[in-house]
Amino acid sequence: MPQPSVRHVFVFLEIFSCEGGIQSYVKDILRAYDEAVTAEGSQQSQADVLLLRDGPDCPNPWATSPAFRFHYLKSSLPQLGRGRLAIALLRVLLLRRPARVFCGHIKLAPLVRSLCQLTGTPYTVLTYGKEVWEPLPPRSQQALQQADTVWTISRYSRDRACRANHLDPAQFRMVPCAVDGALFTPGPKSAELVARYGLANARVLMTVARLWSGDIYKGVDVTIRALPAILRAFPDVKYLVIGRGDDQPRLARLAAEMGVADRVIFAGFVPTEALVDHYRLADAYVMPSQEGFGIVYLEALACGVPVLAGDDDGSADPLQDGRLGWPVPHRDPEAVAAACCEILAGQDRRCDGPWLRQEALKVFGKEAFRRCVVRLLEPIPPAADPKNRSPIEAVSSRSASSGDRP
Fold it and tell me: What does pTM read for this prediction?
């Protein structure tokens, strides 16, 4: 006998056994879903969550939530794990009759497509960024092309995925990253950290990034090259780089070659719970990068810190097309130097910390994220529906009509 139906099924690689941007994003989606079910007062499980690489021993804050029924499918043999996932998903589709399946990673999309087509179940693919920016194998492309909808984090990621994999932009729905405004807040500079990093009486530029040789696009080297010009205008500037990786020795050598080694501080790894005090040290957050979105920009903005980013990537969304920050050519030290000097001069509205925080949280706070997810869990509206605009397209429209420009 079929079991009671559920609204949704989520299929993920892993959520709780490792840390990362995708994992953080997925947890925000589950949190929004849990809050929506709790608000309804329902005590019946609303979603089955299938986890390929997580085991029941992983820390799971929603383990007892009535919103979810978790299926842990971790196996020491990858092929066995995938077989278990296929059986579990087919069983849920046949017995629980879900309204929709949400596939949490492109690597799982071909399997989800096959089983959903077999059972006539609509499915949505969740994408995050780089994993869909280049041409995918044919089966993965087909899984995206035949999905009812594709969720992504920014217009830039949508456009790159469409170009690379022959997708229809009308399939896409925007579910941008969110920032926790209760965690990332303005505040005074920590005297202990000022002393630790030698920042007394200094204006501080800051970057939070992996320092991996494969991630030079983060732009730390460009900012180091910009420092001599910045120092001519503001001799008290220091550059605090937070992160670790195998590219740090090269960056340190570059700082020495540029004559700014005494102005660049490599802080190493900083845990999430300590990041807010580090953001508060900054007079400007500087990362001329190429990001799919750039959650770090939101974290800085929520702390009231002015932001510099690249001008041809997903950072256009957190910066709201330049309303809230300085987009510059991402490999241009002169442009970075000029923008940093504007920020440090402090004459632009985009240096107004309370306003930056207010405007960032209005679009990208946790409550805005929850509303976005809940709306998109409803039956799929026509592509022309104005509700399908990205949050930035919506705010840009409002700003244009009100004359709200920095």
Answer: 0.90
